[in-house]
Specification:
A hairpin with a 2-residue loop joins β6 and β7 (about 265-275). The strands form 2 sheets. A 7-stranded mixed sheet has the order 1-4-5-9-8-7-6, sandwiched between helices. A two-stranded antiparallel ribbon has the order 2-3. With about 375 residues, it is an alpha+beta fold. The protein has helices spanning about 10, 15-20, 25-35, 40-50, 55-90, 110-125, 140, 185-190, 235-250, 300-305, 325-330, 340, 345; strands spanning about 130, 135, 175-180, 195-205, 220-230, 255-260, 265-275, 290-300, 315-320. Helix content is about 35%, strand content about 15%. The longest helix has about 40 residues, at about 55-90. The protein folds into 2 domains: about 10-95, no CATH class; about 110-350, BirA Bifunctional Protein, domain 2 (2-Layer Sandwich). α3 (about 25-35) runs antiparallel to α5 (about 55-90). It binds ligand 2U9. The site of ligand 2U9 has 21 residues, from α8, β5, β8 and β9.
Amino acid sequence: MASRTGYPDLDALLPRLERIATLDAAALEAEQIALLGRKSGAITLLLKSLPTLPLEERRAFGAAVNQLKQEVEARLASRKAALEAEARARREAVDLTMPARRRWVGGEHPVTVVTEEILQIFHELGFAVVVGPEVETEWFNFGALNFPADHPALDMHDTLYLDAPPVDERPAGGRLLLRTHTSPVQIRVLLASPPPVRGVMPGMVYRSDPFDPSHAPGFSQIEGLAVDEGISFVDLKATLVHFAHRFFGPSTRVRFRPSYFPFTEPSAEMDAECLLCHGAGCPACKQSGWMEILGCGMVHPAVLRNSGVDAERYTGFAFGMGPHRIALLRYGVPDIRLFYDGDMRFLEQFVTAEPGREAPHPRPGDPTERGRGRGQGRGRGRGSA
Ligand code: 2U9
């Protein structure tokens, strides 16, 4: 076979040149080192041998080796560029068989949904929404509300006190604590503005309770207050029965039972017929057919006086309920801790429809879902309502 370069040493390398266009990235790098490596690349060695050749051979052989070297470099570069282009095309390729990424639909937390619905109902009755501080003094949280100084609620086992110096102010000071109810906001409202007063006070409250299925150290509360001339227990009942019918449905039966709170006299608790069994009796209502919804009563005259209100002229009613607890009852959730976990597998069950888009499944609490077992607690699959 005729020599292409005129030098057998160079001819021997020609088949390797041809193969460069077929190498993958790893083999290409190995071949680059094998041919051009600084210490022992085949072409490098040939160039290093030049000084040992007689002068007359050196020039022609040197030119041939350099030409071969340039060709090798050109082929290596061209193969490298081709491999990079292939990799880029693979990266950018559209895979039409890939499932679409799910669109994220945000939603309100179920406790927020319940809170907003409750506030809306009272807003329509003329109650203003008022918020206040979560850190309070002993007087605003207990004293003004007619708690005796030795009441067990003041105990460190029940109330979370701050490790801070007490507020030295009479009578409104005392130790600093995390409020155990939103009632101090009502005291502040009455002190700041004379009756008539109608307000609902939402917010977090804190007690020294461990987390368990039905307790949490922090939970939400909505309290309400109406103070005016001539307010009676009839106003209390009419307002709260209206609320229950708006919130739970117009045919929901309610009942009042006598109770006791230091800040109201007389005091009562309002039950609604069980949302799950509609009065028939089930484990959720301990077979009673009823669920406790809120506490209420006529504001104690001592509380009015502590708030600067003339208790001879004015009377009022007050109530308190827990949106976490009501959400628990409404959705049949077996463990209050689910409301705090932020676990999307639980929370996404409450996502409501976006305008112009189908809801992924019936919304818990949707009126069309009444009586069809609205429980959406842990363990129930999506769309099982
Ligand atoms: C003032 C006067 C009276 C607010 C009231 C209740 C009854 C009550 C509980 C329900 C469940 C708290 O979240 S809960 O644990 N509350 O039963 N609260 S009357 O009475 C007031 C408030 C402020 C000035």
